[in-house]
Amino acid sequence: MIIIGGRAIGPGHPPFVVAELSGNHNGSLERALAIVDAVAEAGAHALKLQTYTPDTLTVDCDGPGFRLGDEHELWGGETLYRLFQRAHTPWEWHEPIFERARERGLVAFSAPFDPTAVELLEKLGVPAYKIASSEIVDLPLIRLAAATGKPVIISTGMATISEIEAAVSAAREAGCTQLAVLSCTASYPADPSESNLRSLPLLAALTGEVVGLSDHTPGLGAALASVALGACLIEKHVTLSRADGGVDAAFSLEPAELAALVVESERAWRSLGNVAIGPRPSEQEGLRFRRSLYVVREVKAGDPVTPGNVRSIRPSGGLSPDAAGEVMGRRFAKDVPFGTPLTWDLI
């Protein structure tokens, strides 16, 4: 279990739902604050930003290595610099966004992408750090975030087992004692068939840490399925409306969908229950209304048992329906009124 902003995250607690703002502010602080309000009203537990500038991530170069492939579904042919220019959250916005989030009862934190981002976030008092999938190989950054003593959440998109092990070890060695590891498919949008959620128990076993899902697939299906496989934290991008467009809109949830995720993920978690087969406490009343053999017509001593006077009906209390073959043709030992459960002493 880990604790972020006073909230416990782990197998014994409902899923912790994190709404990722990312670039869905579309360049407007007013819109960013409206998203914060929508996230709070939807009942999510946390709001997350990404803290970088185009210049802290890359350089303004148009060479082939700095350009996304033309076949990319959303950002084909765009340079990294221009994409990050559109998507980044200006650093001066962080404080008002965090302040609004806290006012609305949300845990607010961010993913830093370089040491200057960690420095800013420390000044703003974030309660945790997220390491993005692409940064899992940046071990110095992981060590820097971990050295703050705050919980660290690491996404594992694109990562091999050895890269995950190296990142987890770097965090632990730098002093992190509260760590979560997220399964992730780092494609945008992601195909559900590539989620490989059956790997979540393996990820938990390999790392020994709390696990969750950073999900870029459309809809709620993958996120809800992950709960059954042990996800304790679910992160989804959120926008006010996909129709408004924006760099992340295509794989982001709208507020009503986020609200459904919060409700249904907790319901999915509760449905896991315990390893138990047999009647549940709430089924005790139902047990009274199983079928059994009843006398359905008033009979006299000596009358034969026939399908006309003994039938399998609800409620329980009489002999099992399977006993019908044994009792038919026998005779009643006494007068029996209508509506009496058939027992062996009556025949």
TrEMBL record:
Domain AFP-like, first and last residues per copy: 292-347
SMART domains in the record: SAF
Xref: NCBIfam families: PseI
Root EC class: transferase
Species whose genome carries this gene: Nonomuraea insulae
Keyword Hydrolase: no
Pfam families: NeuB, SAF
PANTHER family xref list: N-ACETYLNEURAMINATE SYNTHASE (PTHR42966), PSEUDAMINIC ACID SYNTHASE (PTHR42966:SF2)
Stated name of the protein: Pseudaminic acid synthase
Stored CDD domains: SAF_NeuB_like
Organism lineage string: Bacteria, Bacillati, Actinomycetota, Actinomycetes, Streptosporangiales
InterPro entries in the cross-refs: AFP_Neu5c_C_sf, Aldolase_TIM, PseI-like, PseI/NeuA/B-like_N, Pseudaminic_synth_PseI, SAF, SAF_AFP_Neu5Ac, SAF_PseI/NeuA/NeuB
Keywords carried by this UniProt record: Transferase
Gene: pseI
UniProt superkingdom: Bacteria
MF terms (GO), sorted A to Z: transferase activity
EC number: 2.5.1.97
